Amino acid sequence: MAVKKRLLLLGLLAALLGGCSPGPKPNELQFWTIQLSPKFDPLIRSMLAEWEEQNPGVNVRWTDLPFGSVERKLLAAVFARTAPDVVNLNPLFSANLASKGGLLPLQQRLTPEVKASYLPRVLKAAEQDGELYALPWYLTARITLANQRLLKDAGYSQPPATWAEVPAYAEAVKKRTGRYALFVTVVPDGSAELLESMVQMGVQLVDERYRATFNSPEGRRAFAFWTDLYRRGLLPREVVSQGFRRAIELYQSGELAQLASGAEFLATIQTNAPQVAADTVPYPPVTGADGAANVAVMNLAVSRQSRRPQLAVDLASFITNPANQLRFAQAARVLPSSAPALKKLEQELAGAQGRDGLVGAARLMSAETLARARVLVPADPGIKRLQAIIYGQLQRAMLGRMSSDAAIAEAERQWNAYAAARWP
Asked: Per CATH, which fold does 11-138+297-353 belong to?
């Protein structure tokens, strides 16, 4: 019954999303962002003023929303037929809206030159069934922040480069320091890092019909990998009950040898735990055998309700052009999804070595990581449900309630039941 109600709601949403909004004013575009104000007010307003100057007679009304409320408010606007023309979305929500017909297809509305300006792998991740529904804006690439003092005490000069090296390393850290090597949450609605690690270990999650393919030799090895680490006491007990915030707390207290994070968290560590920050050195992220790292993306999308779709596409393209991406990346200490902007930023960071200290070194490491990074877990519809199912069953295996093989088989059964109802 719950599935039928959900499908009915999604059908109603699709009908409303596809409708044409009367819009507040014919000469106004609405632009929504996520948690950028007031810190970036001067930069964003400057960009919008430049665009308005290039498009006389058209005004942009900018609205910034808290991260936790954007989806709810956007859905409310959709139902009221007042959806913004251009909206800042995470890939999961934009994929869900696109799958219901709520976002404007962009493939034929962009020139080849504009499309060529984005990093190809990042742009590809915004596609569904060969159609482009969003433009990548800014990125973060996870790197390893390692406590060099704990590494030395454990007998290591650097953290592991691949997941295959982690068990021996985790055992050495625990045995020789009494601390833990790493923290990877298994909370169902937490970070996707563990799901990404499975892909790095060679696991294919689903097929083209969204049916489970993760109960494979590679998948069973991945389930056994994490189950064994936990049962041997080589992961903090809280990984089954707490999320990434707990990882930061443990690292700042000196209880964790390494933290998988973006460079943007370093300023917080420097403030809260200056001694730990002084012992911290950035390293490349842990990967699988092929060396592929993960990149997280924030997108700009155009609502299908927009009354001036080509102008809205032009605004989204303008905000994400190389010059504006570089300006935003410099101010926000993130990474651009524009290839020319990334090249320029790398040159600036390399030239500032020694002047910008730890944060600068970490940002350069993140930028260099993009050369081998991709979106490891595509933002397909239902991906959060898939994560919740896999994590929930993996928790049971970790806690000794069932074997890891039985847990992955149950995860497969639950996912396929959901997939069959959603994609008959």
From this structure: D-Maltodextrin-Binding Protein; domain 2 (3.40.190)
